[in-house]
Amino acid sequence: MPNIQREINKKRETTLHIAAAANQENFVKNLVNVMSSDDLKAVNIVGNTALTYAAATGNVNIAKVMLDKNQDLEKLCSGVRPLFMAAVLRHSQMVQFLYSWRKVSQWCGNEQLELFITCVKGDLYGVALDMLKANPNFATAKNEDGEIALHVLAHNPSAFVSGSQLGMTYKEV
């Protein structure tokens, strides 16, 4: 099968992009088996790999197949990073998987902070806490929108056990 990874639409998406976006796990597995590891690096018109599409679906099995074939896929950063895509869409299992696969320490500081704030916004507190332990400055750092993690938490009462922003329960008089 020569040229299995050719572009098949105007967005320069490949068969793998489409199969991953359609959450076609078995098809992706079979396709990846006949591809070279470099084939998985193909990007669409906005620079996204098929792994970003897999992250968007939240299907960890698809992501695992791709990363088993090419461990450097998560490092590519021409488009939306797969980990960031999963965090934005609140796919907690995918976020955990991708975060454990590749720590974000190689990302630039702004990218790390944006991921941290996105995890806090998306109630992905496990990864957010891991990131905070690695870089305590995230607790008070402002992202590009001027947001601080503590402000984001304060606007999310469900983040607190009692359901109130101050950790207090209210008693009706």
TrEMBL record:
Keywords: ANK repeat. Pfam families: Ank_2. Transmembrane segments: none annotated. InterPro entries: Ankyrin_rpt, Ankyrin_rpt-contain_sf. The keyword Chloroplast does not apply. ANK repeats lie at residues 46-78. PANTHER family: ANKYRIN REPEAT FAMILY PROTEIN, NO MECHANORECEPTOR POTENTIAL C, ISOFORM D-RELATED. This is Ankyrin repeat-containing protein. It comes from Quercus lobata (Valley oak).
